[in-house]
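cache lookup: miss for this entity combination. No prior model stored, computing from scratch. Input as submitted by user K.M.:
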Amino acid sequence: MLEATVTIPDETMSRVSLSDTSVTLLRQLWDQYGPLMFHQSGGCCDGSSPMCYPAGDFLTSDSDVLLGVFDIGDTGAGSADPKTIEFWMSREQFQYWSHTHLTVDVVKGRGSGFSVEAPEGVRFMIRSRLMQETLPFA
Amino acid sequence: MTIYAAPGTDGAKVTFKPRYEHWIGGEWIKPVKGNYFEDISPVNGKPFAEVGRGTAEDIDAALDAAHKAAPAWGKTSVTERAAVLNRIADVIDANLELLAVAETWENGKAIRETLNADLPLAADHFRYFAAAIRAQDDDHAQLDNDTVAYHFQEPLGVVGQIIPWNFPILMAVWKLAPALAAGNAVVLKPAEQTPVSILVLIELIGDILPAGVLNIVNGFGVEAGKPLASSPRIRKIAFTGETSTGRLISQYASANLIPVTLELGGKSPNIFFKDVADENDAFYDKAQEGFTLFAFNQGEVCTAPSRALIHKPIYDSFLETVTARTAKAIQGNPLDTDTQVGAQASNDQLEKILSYIDIGKQEGAKVRLGGERADLGGDLSEGYYVQPTIFEGHNKMRLFQEEIFGPVVAVTSFEDYDDAISIANDTLYGLGAGVWSRNGNVAYRAGRDIQAGRVWINNYHAYPAGASFGGYKSSGIGRENNKLALDHYQQTKNMLVSYSENALGFF
């Protein structure tokens, strides 16, 4: 399990983590696509799936919140060769999700949308648990 | 009761080809890179056909074919185009069972729905737009005695469409019918979970449309969808799916300065006012069914009534009645006409639904019914089945705020009218809503106060061609299923004509 750094001002707990399978898959995808990012989706069909894009492909803005940053470099956080992945969510969605901690996991499937893992026959998926401290977020 | 034979077995209505290529320029074309992926049936979790794994090269070939076909197609008379659409509708009607079995096998939905909803609606949709395009009058205005402004509705040219997997044929038809009626050529990418049904339809209607007017490239979003959505060679992109991809597609569209229409789902409230229970009559029975419709199509509907809001005075009795009714829903082999709840469309969808059931329990929502994966045994054991599930909780729970896209309803109570509207509108989305009341004034006011593009009053999950469909708030941009959709596939040419011989007099 790899926890993201805390990026929201005045917060002290990590909000999002990667399962070990996700880390392995992300390293492989990094070799294929270069630097990566996540944007948490909502809505229809494959909504609620974390979408993984080449970094910068999806333009984030003030309408989004950066929930955390992962470093999937070989030695983990603070490695000599950092490979950082930002995890974003729209601000309006965060209003409804902020009481839950998110873990990015991998399941068999093929998703849809433009997330880069789909051709591998797998899909990133969110597992959630309630945060210990529930207020004040967002 | 009828149980349709599984595709490819004795007596089956359809046998899939082992491999499907792209449909480009009126021909089956191998993917340029020569790769294929497996199409898996959610009925039994097993692959049943291979499908071309398209890339930018295939999208380019499809765009070439579309650009070649678009000018002539755009100049055909509306009479001709309408005749083509009507012929397609006739072929769908004539092959109803074949298409229904194919779609059920690929998507997992109960065949009673493909036979009675998906495909009849698809046929009717073509007929509706055949009629709508013929009835569309271009207008003109006499601006003064010698000046007339003529307005012509002209096709955009070549358009891109990306289709979801929950109604593989009907959702394609919702986009195709207005686009083709308006005289555009289309490059369409089906969902990677359901790439074949639409190709089975193409096998039947391929020779009705001129070559290149409709091109279909399958593949993964990142490999085929992205090159289509970001291509400078399309004049419009239409997408149904989730919000991140919707935003990404809008970004690509902004780079090319083209219009985009998006349908991005919802979290639709279904409101039951206390007077529904005033009598134990046919209407009360209808309202109960209206609740249970959350399990229609296994909940895989953008407008699924996945939040039930029940007036406090009837909360206990109504919920008890509809829970008992839902418990009787028959879940089983999707090819059995008695089956009411079939399989979820894919393994990742199944996993996502189970993850929501998990967070619902963590948040303290009470499981009133279901709450587990269903193992139907035998051949269906590996299929993707979830029990119809009823949760009780409150509107701030994730269960109430995200589209689960499974047979899961989140139920809460409301005190009075204002409370009902406030809960109903406390969501990011605004696609659908239901209002149930015997009081026409209350129902009307609620219908107007709910921020959603479609409000069903005393019914739910009806999708007749003619009734516009589209989102408020984060549910999207644009309208389908109504002649308004033509506007998304046309551009207005104004020809300003002077019939005067006299100079303006400025120079």
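stored under new cache key. The first helix of chain B runs from residue 56 to 75.
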